[in-house]
Design a protein that fits this description.
alpha/beta, binds coenzyme A, 5 helices, elongated, 2 domains
Length: 245
């Protein structure tokens, strides 16, 4: 079923998980590994998942889901035993994180509290996100569907992401859109997915202006001083820049 090599693998994964807290959680600086192992809920959730996943892969009934359930009750982190998680995952603070059945997470990923790696409905098969190595997902972000998040990408807190994210990109907002690539402001047609031109509004605006000018021309020619009914200017439907924080 599983032997020494599996145990050795799990032990090395544990070391890397604790190391991840040391490296990426500022609150863990100067804290001993024993203290992290005993009091970091995100680390407990990942360790429990590693055990549940090994048992799940080995076809052991009941135990994987029971471990996941107990871990969820204690840490507030729900990870399906089938989810594939790479080395060095840090779930900072823990609470409110949900990682779905077909989610895949690369190495050295950081996930903050309240993150969902979820499906978008009742689809079966691959329906949860795949995160590349070294991805960071900010608190409260929802990543939905079988999307791919490229290596090193950062997802801003509270973003809702439903499309693929390129490597090294920073995505913020709802719907999530790219605001930085490799630390530089995103440019080009895909840079802003919210503020797209609205051709219908533009056409109506032009027509309004034309009617207004024809009205005043008719009034001038007929000598009729009666004021034409005012054409209300179109109100901009654009909201504040969603990348504005
Ligand atoms: C997105 C994030 C990772 C920063 O990434 P970055 O590549 O350094 O990006 P910047 O800070 O330069 O921000 C890029 C733009 O996105 C905006 N932005 C940053 N985070 C945002 C967010 N969560 N929601 C909306 N907009 C955001 C910035 O204002 C900036 O806007 P601008 O282009 O108009 O100047 C960071 O802001 C974030 O959300 N981190 C999560 C942290 C977290 O969850 N902490 C919980 C600790 S308990």
């Amino acid at each position: 079923m599983f032997g020494l090599s599996t145990l050795a693998r799990v032990a090395s994964e544990l070391r890397r998980d604790v190391g991840a807290a040391h490296q990426r959680d500022p609150a863990a600086r100067g804290v001993s590994s024993t203290e992290i192992l005993t009091s970091w809920p995100g680390v407990h959730a990942v360790i429990s998942h590693r055990i549940a996943h090994v048992l799940f892969e080995a076809g052991v009934p009941l135990a994987p889901r029971s471990i996941a359930y107990i871990s969820r009750s204690i840490t507030g982190v729900e990870i399906h035993p089938a989810a594939k998680i790479g080395k060095g995952l840090l779930i900072d603070h823990g609470s409110g994180v949900v990682i779905g059945e077909t989610a895949e997470i690369g190495d050295d990923v950081t996930i903050y509290q309240g993150v969902t790696l979820g499906g978008t409905g009742f689809a079966t098969g691959k329906r949860h996100p795949t995160l590349g190595d070294e991805v960071t997902v900010g608190s409260g972000a929802k990543l939905l569907g079988p999307i791919e998040v490229g290596r090193g990408a950062k997802i801003g807190a509270n973003s809702v992401v439903i499309t693929d994210v390129p490597a090294d990109a920073t995505v913020v907002g709802n719907p999530g859109h790219v605001v930085r690539v490799d630390g530089r402001k995103a440019v080009g047609p895909d840079a802003d997915w919210i503020h797209l031109p609205d051709p219908v509004a533009e056409a109506i605006k032009r027509l309004s202006e034309r009617i207004e000018s024809l009205d005043s021309r008719v009034a001038e020619l007929s000598g009729d001083e009666t004021e034409a009914a005012p054409v209300r200017p179109l109100r901009s439907v654009r909201g504040p820049n969603p990348a504005g924080g």
